[in-house]
Amino acid sequence: FLNLQFVVIKRATDIGKNAFTNCCSLQEVYAKKLQKLAEKAFSECCVLTTINLKTVEILQSECLDECFLLNHIELDSLQSVEKDVFQRCYLLKDYRCKNINFEHDGESFIISEQTENKNAHNRVVSWGRLCAL
């Protein structure tokens, strides 16, 4: 996958462990049916800027860590998230998530609250690289 720049995933619902780890040229991922990203699925995809996560329900540990250029995500269906999912995603400034609230510690997201009612929150939170909430 050394020169892979974009991926279109039409049918798959799960991306397996380490599936695209260290794909240094990968910039865009388009998938309409994704439900789960396994551990380190897109870890170290350092130029990844675009990935459709609207249908994803499960994000496992470090599945998007070190995606330095990722700057916007929409997690409309997210139900479960593990630790260090967005670790070192320094440019990630905007996110939308209806079911889980996050805080940013300057380097990564941390879960601040999982809501009882999955439709209770629908907000956009923004921050810069060095801003801690």
Could you describe the 3D structure shown?
The chain has strands at residues 6-9, 14-15, 28-31, 36-37, 50-51, 58-59, 72-75, 80-81, 94-97, 100-104, 109-114, 123-126. It has 133 residues and is mostly beta strands. The strands form four sheets. A four-stranded parallel beta sheet has the order 2-4-6-8, with no helix packed on it. The radius of gyration is 14 Å and the shape is globular. Residues 115-133 have low confidence and may be disordered.
Short description:
This protein is mainly β and 133 residues long.
Features of the shown structure:
LRR_5; four-stranded parallel sheet; mainly beta; 12 strands; three-stranded parallel sheet; 0% helix; Leucine rich repeats-containing protein; 133 residues; disordered C terminus
Rg for CA atoms? 14 Å
Number of strands: 12
Taken together, the total number of domains comes to: 1
Strand order of the largest sheet: 2-4-6-8
Instruction: State the shape.
Output: globular
Calculate the terminal CA-CA distance, rounded to whole Å: 36 Å
Average residue pLDDT: 81
Give the uncertain stretches in residue-range form. 115-133
Main beta sheet strand tally, sense and closure: 4 strands, parallel
Share of residues in strands: 25-35%
Number of helices: 0
What is the helix/strand order? EEEEEEEEEEEE
Determine the fraction of residues in helical runs and give it as a percent range. under 10%
Question: What structural category do the secondary elements indicate?
Answer: mainly beta
